[in-house]
Amino acid sequence: MKLVLHIASMLLVLSASASAQQPEPVPAFPGQTDAPPPATESRYSVEVIADGLSTPWAIAFLPDGNFLVTERNGRLRTVTSDGEVSDPIEGVPPVKVVAAQSLHDIVLDPEFEDNRLIYLTYFAPPEGEDAREWPVAHYYEEVWERSLPERRVMELGSERVTRARLSEDLRKLENVDVLIEGRVERRIVFADDGTMFVTGADAFRFYDSDLDGVERTFEDNPDVRRNFTGRVIRINPDGTIPVDNPWLDRATVSRETFAHGFKDPEGAAIHPETGELWLVDHGPQGGDEINIVRGGRDYGWPDVSYGVQYDARQADGRTNVPVGHGETSRPDVEEPIYYWVPSIAPSGMAFYTGDLMPEWRGNLFVGAMAGRHLVRLVLDGERVVAEERLLEELDDRIREVRQGPDGALYVLGTYALIRIGPADQN
Question: What is the CATH number of the domain that holds 326?
Fold first, then answer.
C-alpha cells in the first residue's frame, strides 16, 4: 500500500556528536561551503513506492513505467509502479560484495526501446571464486597492511563496466559483454555526444598509499595519480576509446582516462544547459566535494583535500592527520565548486529539469548517507547560493536520486524506493 506524507522541509544543524575536523578548512572563495538556506523552504509529498529492497544502489526507468533497481547483494530486480518487487533477474554477472564494492549503477542505452541494451557497473570476483559477500577487513585491513608488491599481485577481483540485453519479459539478461575492466565501477553517465563517462574510486591497493590518504605527494611521478587515484573515464558505448580523449598523447596514462584525482565519486550528472559532467566525490573525514569535470584536469586526491585522514585508522592515536602535505588548494588542482565539512557521505546526484515542481527547476540534488537527508542546492551558474536539507523526517541513508519521466524525484533509502512530488498531490 502506498504511503503519502505531506511535509515541509526543515533545515537542522548537524548534531554536535558528528565527527568534525578542527579547525575547519578555509574556503578558496566565498560560498564554497556552508551556503545559507533558501528564502523559502520546500514543500513536497513523500510516497513509498516499495520497501523490502536489500540495500538498493541505483534506479533506471523503463518505458513501460516499471523501474529497474540494483541491490548491493548483486541482484537486479524490477519494481512496478504499484510497488510489486520481482524475483531477481537472471543472467546478472557474478558480483563480489566487500566494503564499498558491489553491484552499483544501471543505465539504459539512449536507444533502449529499439535495442533493449543496459549498462551495469560492479565488482567481479577473481576467477574461481564464488560470488558472495566478504567482511570489510578482507578489502581494507588485509590489503592495506601489506607491502605494495604484495598488494599488486593479490587477486581480489576487478571493477567492470558491462553491457547486456534485457529480455522482453524482463526476466533475464542476454548477450552480456564486458566493455572495460579495471578501476571504474561507480556511476555511468551518457554525454550529449553519445560517449559514456564512468567514475571509479581511488585504487589505493595499486600504489604506495594508505587507505584514506598519504603524508606525502606524488610530484615525482604524477602518472601514478593519473592511473590509480579515483578517475573518470570516457569510452564509446561499445567499449572503444574516443579519438579525442585527453591523454592519448601520453603512453604512460591509461587511454580511457578523462580526469583524475578523485577519492570516491559516487554521484554524477550532465548539466542540462552546459552539457558538462558534474560529480560529487565522497571525501575522507570531511572534504566531500562537488566538481565540474573537464578533460585532462587534476582534482587533487590524495595530494590536496579539504578533508583529513580518518581518526579511526590512526594506530598511534593521532587525530586530524593531513592528507598529503595538508594543502586544501593548489594552483595546478581544480577547485571544487562546493564542499562539506563534516562529511555528509554523498552518493547519487541529479539536476532537476521537470515541470512538476517548477520551484526546483535548475536545482542540484545530492543523496547524503551519513547525513541521512537529501541535499537541495540552489545554483547561480557554477556557484551554490543556497542549501536545503530534505527528507530528514525519514531518518534514512539516501543512496540514490534521479528524476523520473513524470517529473518527480525518485530516491533510494536503505530498503525503499521513494517518490517525491508536489505537496498538494494525493
Answer: 2.120.10.30
378: its cell numbers: 540552489
- Calculated CA dihedral for residues 21, 41, 419, 100, nearest 10 degrees: -10
Residue 111 burial by Cβ neighbours in a 10 Å radius (0-12, 13-18, 19+): exposed
Q: Which parts of 132-281 fold into alpha helices (H)?
A: 136-139, 141-144, 148-153, 222-228
CA distance linking residue 173 with residue 74, whole number of Å: 13
On average, the pLDDT of the chain sits at: 92
Helix segments in 222-290, DSSP class H:
222-228
DSSP state of 392: G
pTM for this predicted structure:
0.94
Q: pLDDT tens digits, residue range 188-203?
A: 999 999 999 999 999 9
What total number of domains does the chain contain?
Answer: 1
Task: State the Cα–Cα distance between residues 104 and 57, nearest whole angstrom.
Answer: 6
Distance from C-alpha of 102 to C-alpha of 125, rounded to nearest angstrom: 10
Instruction: State the residue for C-alpha cell 577547485.
Output: 335
Question: What is the per-residue pLDDT across 149-170, written as a single tens digit (0 to 9) for each?
Answer: 999 999 999 999 999 999 999 9
Environment class of 87 (CB within 10 Å of its CB; exposed 0-12, middle 13-18, buried 19+): exposed
Burial class (CB in 10 A: 0-12, 13-18, 19+), 309: buried
Sign of the Cα pseudo-torsion (226, 227, 228, 231, in order): positive
Alpha helices in 15-90 (DSSP H): none
- 392 near 9, Cβ under 8 Å? yes
Query: Cα(115)–Cα(26) distance, rounded to whole angstroms?
Result: 50
- CA-closest candidate to residue 302, choices 203, 156, 198, 199: 203
SS3 41: coil
At 231, which amino acid appears? R
The rounded distance, in Å, linking the Cα atoms of 285 and 311 is: 8
Q: Which of 98, 118, 100 is nearest to 109 (CA)?
A: 118
Q: Which domain holds residue 407?
A: 3-422
Residue 390, C-alpha cell as written in the block: 530534505
For residue 22, what pLDDT band results from cuts at 50, 70 and 90? Answer: low
Ramachandran angles phi, psi of 227, nearest 5°? -95, -30
Q: Using CA of residue 252, residue 204, residue 310, residue 374, what is the dihedral sign?
A: positive
- The sheet carrying 338-340 orders its strands as 265-270, 277-281, 288-293, 338-340
Task: Please say whether the beta carbons of 140 and 211 come within 8 A.
Answer: yes
Instruction: Give dist(CA 78, CA 61) in Å, integer.
Output: 10
